[in-house]
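Hey, resending since the last one bounced:
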Amino acid sequence: MTGHPILDDAERAAWDAYVAMRTALDRALAAGLRDDADLSEAEFEALLALHSARDRTLRTGELAAALCWERSRVSHLVRRMGERGLVERGECVDDARGTWIGLTNPGRRALLRAVRGHTALLRELVFEPLGPDGLARLESVSRTIQGAVDRSRGTSADRQEPNGPGTGGPVSSGAAS
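The structure tokens again:
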């Protein structure tokens, strides 16, 4: 870490602009998920993880790892999602203590609605305003910052792939069908 312990004017202006943009974008994307598919951000991320999984099922611990959550928090989310018919729980035959969480047809349909709206909103709010050059700069800046975070925390190789759980990105156009 280098430099003065207090942000200078340029650093502060850039940081404030980033925080304001990120807050507004997060709120707009969350509202879009609610409007398009009646899903919370957490439900969307869980459905994405389940959709990406083999046989559209994960053990509770696997879903917790994909979401970077504690198992108890995942259990509460899965209970609420199960009450809405988005997921179903099943006993693990190999491990009496284990539980499988599976994506249901209503969950898949909700995910498809969410992905379509989410993708359209990302294009409207991010990709179209930036254009191709801005999009390339955004990717470069994002990778630079992610690299610095990874080096700082001693991580990198085991990070989630782009468009996977926890990224806020949509699955590819055919993935949720």
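The domain at 24-152 is CATH 1.10.10.10 (Arc Repressor Mutant, subunit A).

Sorry for the duplicate.
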